[in-house]
């Protein structure tokens, strides 16, 4: 693993430390592959985000998805401290829609924007990018990220994160 990849992503993902400007990452427009996908990354502003890069017919991607799904579902419904998004690559939009439908996921799934695809050194999947609540790249992993490593990073990032209310209790 080299440091070239995070260095290429840093200008896109990291907002200036001395200003309150939003990260350029939040400006990205997205092409939805399922009904859960927002139009822009601004939807995730202010929350910890696990971003997973996937391709059709990738067995390790499916295993990584199941792990992320179990960690996400382990959070209380009233207080989700991190979100998960999947970005698909490696085929045309229609093929990606069909392949991602097989995941039967409730996570937002979009095509990988060209601006990000061009900055990737490695196109192998799965890849997991963990972003803090300011949109800064905290860590990334090429290949399957084991549960212990994923949990350690998420616990650090979500320690001070606020809740994203995903369900409203009616009394």
From TrEMBL:
<feature type="signal peptide">
    <location>
        <begin position="1"/>
        <end position="21"/>
    </location>
</feature>
<protein>
    <recommendedName>
        <fullName>Thioredoxin-like fold domain-containing protein</fullName>
    </recommendedName>
</protein>
<dbReference type="InterPro" id="IPR036249">
    <property type="entry name" value="Thioredoxin-like_sf"/>
</dbReference>
<keyword id="KW-0732">Signal</keyword>
<dbReference type="InterPro" id="IPR012336">
    <property type="entry name" value="Thioredoxin-like_fold"/>
</dbReference>
<dbReference type="Pfam" id="PF13098">
    <property type="entry name" value="Thioredoxin_2"/>
</dbReference>
<feature type="domain" description="Thioredoxin-like fold">
    <location>
        <begin position="45"/>
        <end position="154"/>
    </location>
</feature>
């Amino acid at each position: 693993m080299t440091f070239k990849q995070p260095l290429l992503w840093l200008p896109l993902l990291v907002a200036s430390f001395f200003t309150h400007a939003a990260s350029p990452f939040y400006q990205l427009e997205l092409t939805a592959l399922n009904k859960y996908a927002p139009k822009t990354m601004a939807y995730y502003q202010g929350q910890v985000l696990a971003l997973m890069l996937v391709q059709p017919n990738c067995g390790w991607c499916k295993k990584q998805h199941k792990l992320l799904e179990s960690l996400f579902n382990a959070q209380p419904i009233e207080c989700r401290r991190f979100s998960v998004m999947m970005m698909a690559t490696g085929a045309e939009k229609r093929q990606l829609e069909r392949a991602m439908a097989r995941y039967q996921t409730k996570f937002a799934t979009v095509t990988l924007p060209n601006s990000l695809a061009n900055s990737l050194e490695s196109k192998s999947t799965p890849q997991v990018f963990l972003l803090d609540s300011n949109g800064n790249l905290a860590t990334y992993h090429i290949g399957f990220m084991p549960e212990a490593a994923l949990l350690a990073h998420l616990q650090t990032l979500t320690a001070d994160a606020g809740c994203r209310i995903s369900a409203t209790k009616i009394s």
